[in-house]
Here is the input.
Amino acid sequence: MSFAAATVRALRLAARPTANIASRTFVNNVAVKKWAFNASGFNQYGLYYDDALYESEDVKEALKRVPQTVLDERAFRIQRAVQCSVMKTVLPKDQWPTYEEDREKGRYLQPYLEEVSSEREEREAWAKQG
Here is the structure.
């Protein structure tokens, strides 16, 4: 195939309508997300996604706004994970949170984090103005 023919073919493929192309991408692939979740290893210690967040100022403020029962559950999961780490073992597989459970219950801090970050951004915007 000549260079001109290859160029015409490439342009024709690029110009075709994209409505028939599947919306599945590498980032939006649930199988890849499940693999990354299991590869992270936090689930083997019984931790949720928000249990393993770095405690920045925003996270600390969000933790102050979470109900006490959620904080107690979080403290238990973290203490259990530390105990497993000290003993150089992991929890039995039936106690590991699944990907679906993590997506459902493991993002308990996200609404509070969004609220705290929007308040911080608003404060910064007001500080810039005056």
Notes: Residues 41 and 47 are 9 Å apart (CA to CA). The chain has a mean pLDDT of 88.
